[in-house]
Amino acid sequence: MKKIGIVDTTFARYDMGAAAIDELKSNHDGFKIIRYTVPGIKDLPVACKKMFEEQNCDILMALGMPGPKPIDKQCAHEASSALIQTQLMTNKHILEVFVHEDEGKDEKELAWLADRRAREHAINCLDLLFKPEKLIKKAGKGLREGFKDAGPLK
Amino acid sequence: MKKIGIVDTTFARYDMGAAAIDELKSNHDGFKIIRYTVPGIKDLPVACKKMFEEQNCDILMALGMPGPKPIDKQCAHEASSALIQTQLMTNKHILEVFVHEDEGKDEKELAWLADRRAREHAINCLDLLFKPEKLIKKAGKGLREGFKDAGPLK
Amino acid sequence: MKKIGIVDTTFARYDMGAAAIDELKSNHDGFKIIRYTVPGIKDLPVACKKMFEEQNCDILMALGMPGPKPIDKQCAHEASSALIQTQLMTNKHILEVFVHEDEGKDEKELAWLADRRAREHAINCLDLLFKPEKLIKKAGKGLREGFKDAGPLK
Amino acid sequence: MKKIGIVDTTFARYDMGAAAIDELKSNHDGFKIIRYTVPGIKDLPVACKKMFEEQNCDILMALGMPGPKPIDKQCAHEASSALIQTQLMTNKHILEVFVHEDEGKDEKELAWLADRRAREHAINCLDLLFKPEKLIKKAGKGLREGFKDAGPLK
Amino acid sequence: MKKIGIVDTTFARYDMGAAAIDELKSNHDGFKIIRYTVPGIKDLPVACKKMFEEQNCDILMALGMPGPKPIDKQCAHEASSALIQTQLMTNKHILEVFVHEDEGKDEKELAWLADRRAREHAINCLDLLFKPEKLIKKAGKGLREGFKDAGPLK
Q1: Is there a contact between D2 and D32 (Cβ–Cβ < 8 Å)?
Q2: Is there a contact between B117 and B107 (Cβ–Cβ < 8 Å)?
Q3: How many angstroms separate the Cα of D150 from the Cα of each of A10, D140, E63?
Q4: Which of A88, B84, E56, E153 has its CA 20 to 30 A from that of B141?
Q5: Phi first, then psi: what are they for D3, rounded to 5°?
Q6: Using the beta-carbon criterion (under 8 Å), do B95 and D43 form an inter-chain contact?
Q7: CB–CB of C88/A49 below 8 Å?
Q8: pLDDT digits over A85-109, tens only?
Q9: What pLDDT sits at residue E28?
């Protein structure tokens, strides 16, 4: 049975991990979910590496909410770079689901965005794991996770 | 028979993968094409690594369209850095074909640019794979993919 | 018996390592503490790697105080990136505890912040090592180390 | 017999590779030159790695001309970082010879600069390979490649 | 007998390597010094790796003087990142001793700074190699190399 890992943070201001898990379970079965929570986004990469190598996960979602300050942006850059590196070291996908605190106009929209982006990436996660051919059909369609799709160029 | 891999995204707003495949097939035969589509540009590096190591591709084209916001530029930087890293880990070429959404003055020009850059890099891909000596003859000629060549300095 | 490593600098203007050690000892026993001090934050990554591989530490705290100038910010970025890399190379956690000199409004607040952040990360360190399930319960709660928690979105 | 590799691009607007080869041959013999041309500077790192590992080069010159736009600067940064990484993976030197398009006041000066920088780095290349002790004598002398030397501090 | 490596550049405008060697010899004996000079700071990382792996150095000082332009700052960032990476690959310390050309108000102060920073890091080098416990006693003391110490927070 396939194992999907959910790795998230106590720093985030919305329980994106729970939203992802709910969406995964609503859309598919035949997999096991393992969860690992760390303090902040810079702790995500090694947590992901451990999930692949010590827990034998097949794919991961790494969820976090970088703050709005320049130092937060830099932390996000460091975390993102290392999440990609982790994938190269393991030959497995990690869906990075980051919501920046300045992406929403208020707390309500931010919570909505965090929930929706987590859910839409959960679908991507299932597609990559179980039906990768579905993604080829959507190539170049201008899809977005969270806010509405940009759509193909006219 | 050589294998050329096409790796692209659902985030892109133009089907650059299809353009690349069309151009490859119009110019050469004697190779097999494999396609892999992922959600966004940060998913490209591991997809490329898997294409080399699990699908035995000999060369890849990685196609994407980074958005116009600062965070999109940062994602492109992270993806590009990791695509180069992937090449160093495998000793094989990946032609990065990125079109930034702010490179075109409108959607029409952007679509034209995405198509043309994908096609011109398809030719580079064939040259690197089958006729690398052709590139030596063009060294220092100020060639560009997409917009017109800058040409050699006068 | 588990080994916790404390790695800090002579550049820092507050003895964050001592604060971390005091907090660790006040909250738990059954572990050994090893300390390693280097000149600056860019010396931390290799010191951490040596602590894992030569001293067999199970987890580390890396403590430092980057200065306020642009070059100091860049050093912090380089150090942080490499601390994450060190974790990926060893599959073990390093709690990065950095306090930037411009985070406090005066020396008094800065000292308070350095002490408190070191202590709060010492608790994270113990949780990751001994009770990781405690962190899952705090996922998405908007926790902060040092200044007060942001809390969950409303 | 030692092998020197020349790796350059079709993007460059001056044939720096030819200038480097001419200078190498004018100053020394007893080595073989191998040339490899790729489309752009981000293709240089893997080309260099292949030159070391598949062509057994002892040292390389990597020549390129980054454009003047911010995205070009970012590409140069990505290429440079990976060229250094390539050296660390192989324990061999790569002389990076980049001329930025905004370094010259006009096309004529830029061509002069590209030629001269390629030639002066060709001498560095020969020194590193055949007479490294010559470089120790020039330590701290404020040498520059291309424009005139800054000289030692007074 | 321990081996200390001195790696410096012909680009630097002050012979920091000589200053470091003089200071090392004045303060301790029972070690051998090996010197390696390269053209610029981006050549330092591989030179350091070779010093560890081909010359069996136990610790290194990497000395350089980045220029004042934005491109020089970027080169320094690339070199620094790779020097840390080199340490992670070898589990050995490299003391980075960089003096930026815009750190001094004139050439005289810059020369003074280069000399003093090289000498103060030479002491750090000896402490790390022979008496690491001395550094623990100075943890959090706000020490600086070159200009005067910031001192502990009040």
Answers
A1: yes
A2: no
A3: 52, 11, 17
A4: B84
A5: -120, 125
A6: yes
A7: yes
A8: 999 999 999 999 999 999 999 999 9
A9: 85
Q: Which residues, in sequence order, are bridge partners of residue E96?
A: E62
Per DSSP, chain B holds a count of helices (H) and strands (E) of 5, 4
Phi, psi values for residue A81, rounded to 5° = -60, -40
For residues D85 and E49, give the distance between their C-alpha atoms in angstroms, rounded to a whole number: 11
Residue C70 CA neighbour count, 13 Å, CB half: 8
Q: Name residue E98's beta-bridge partners.
A: E64
How far, in Å, CA of C110 to CA of B95, rounded? 49
Q: Residue A54, class by beta-carbon neighbours within 10 Å (0-12 exposed, 13-18 middle, 19+ buried)?
A: exposed
Closest-CA distance, D2 to chain B, in angstroms, reads 22
Each residue of C20-52: pLDDT tens digit?
Answer: 999 999 998 899 999 999 999 999 999 999 999
ipTM of this complex: 0.97
Rounded to 5 degrees, φ, ψ at A98 are: -110, 135
Cα–Cα distance, A40 to C142 (Å, whole number):
10
Chains that touch B (3 or more CB pairs under 8 A): A, D
Residue with tokens 């792996």: E53
Q: Which residues of E touch D146 (CB under 8 A)?
A: none
Q: Is E112 on the interface with D (CB under 8 A)?
A: no
Residue pair D8/D17 in contact (Cβ under 8 Å)? The answer is yes
3-state secondary structure of C61: strand
Q: What is the mean pLDDT of chain E?
A: 97
Are E141 and C71 inside 8 Å of each other by CB? no
Cβ atoms within 10 Å, residue E70: 9
